[in-house]
Amino acid sequence: MMYLMRESCELILTPARIAADLTKLACENPLNPLTYTIAGRSVAASCEIFERATRAYPKPAFDLAASERVVWEQPFCRVIAFGEPSDKPKLLLVAPMSGHYATLLRGTVAAFLDTHQVFITDWSDARQVPLAAGRFGLDEYIDYCMALFEALGPDLHVMAVCQPSVPVLAAIARMEAEDHPLVPRSATLLGGPIDTRRSPTAVNDLAQQRGIAWFRRHCIHAVPPSYPGDGRAVYPGFLQLTGFMGMNLDRHLTAHWDMFNHLVEGDGDSATKHREFYDEYLAVMDLTAEFYLETVEQVFIAHRLPRGEMRHRGQPVDLGAIRRCALMAVEGEKDDITGVGQTLAALDLTPNLPPERKAYHLQAGAGHYGIFNGSRFRAEIAPKIKQFMQHNSEQSGEKTLACEQTVMLQPDEDRADGLDASVALIVYQAPPQCPAVPALQIAGQS
Predict the structure, then answer these.
(1) What's the pLDDT tens digit per position in 24-58?
(2) Whether this model's pTM surpasses 0.70
(3) CATH superfamily, region 68-205+288-401
C-alpha cells in the first residue's frame, strides 16, 4: 500500500513540477527584466528546489573517460568492465547493494583506472526483475560472488565497499575451504559490517532494538503493477533513502538552503556541485525482501559470521579456512554507519592467514562516504590499497616472497568510541630478498 501511495503522490505532483519548471524558465529568460533582480532569482531558485525535491531520480551514468562493456550478466547483477582488455592487474569492485546504484563508486573506479583493469558489480533494481527470475537472498549473493571470482580469475583482486564485505568474505571462505584454485589474490574491505558488536552505531542499535519481525512488518512492500517486477516483495529504495537522510537531516536541509542562496547569488559552480551530488544520492533502487531481511537478521542482529554460525547452502562459513587470500581492512575515524573496529574484526577472525598477508588502515577524519570517495580517498587510502595489492600480486607465475611483519600496538587514549583494542600500526620489515614495501599505517598518526 505504501508503494502505491508514493507512486500516486508522484503522479499528483507532476503538474506542479511542470508548472515550477515553466516558472523557472520564465524567471531565467534574458528578455525578462525580473531575471536581473533578487526577486526573480529567488523565484527561480525556489522552483528548482521544489522540482528537485519532488522528482524521481533515474539511474545515473558512470560517465568516465573509459569505455564500458558488460562481461558477465545474470538477472540480479551484471559486471561492467572499464576500458579495453589489458595486461594490468584485475580489480573487481563489489558495489554495495544497499539502496544506491553502483555509480556511487564512480570516484572509486576512477582512482584505479590508471593502474588496474577495473570491473564493477552493477546490481539490478529489484523492481525491474520479473518474479520468474526467482529469489535473491544471501545464499544467491554468495553464489554470485564465487561465480565472479571464477569468471574473472586467476590473480584477481577484490574490493568490497561496506555491505558486500560480509558475503565477499563468506564466498572467499567457502572457496578456501574447497581449496579452489581461483580464490582471489587479495580482498580489501572498506567500512564493512563484519562484527557489528564492536563500536555499534545508530544503524546497529536500531536492528537490535526492533528485531526482525518489525523489519518484516514495516519495511517490506510489493512492487506495483507498473514495473516488470510486479508482485515481488522488496525493501523499497525510497524507504532506505528516508533512513539515510534522517540520520543527518540537518546537514541535508542546510545543503539545500545553501543551494538556494548560491542560485540567488549566481554562484553557478557551487550549485552545479550540489546538483551532481544529489543527482547521485537521491537515485535509489529496491532490494529483494529476502536479501534485506537475511542481511538484517544474520549481520546486524544474530552476528552469525563473527560467531562462526553462518552457513551457505547448508555448509559452514569458516573464516579459519582463509589462508591464501590476503586481507586489508579500511575504516573511517568518523564513520557513523560502520563503527571503528567492525571491519578490523575480519583480521582477527582469520587466524590461519599469515600476518604478512594482513593490513589495516584507519583514515583520520573520514566518515563512511570518505573511505571510498573524495580527496582523502584519492590522496591517502587508494595509494595504500594499491600498495597492498601490488605486494600480494602473483609475479611470473610464483607467489610474492613472504616478508616478515611487525605489528606494533599503539594505545589510543583519546578515542571516544569505546573501542577497547589498541590501534594497530602495521609495518612491513622486508629482508634483503623481499621487495621494499612502504609502511602501512594510520593516516594522521606518526
Answers:
(1) 999 999 999 988 999 999 999 999 999 998 888 89
(2) yes
(3) Alpha/Beta hydrolase fold, catalytic domain (3.40.50.1820)
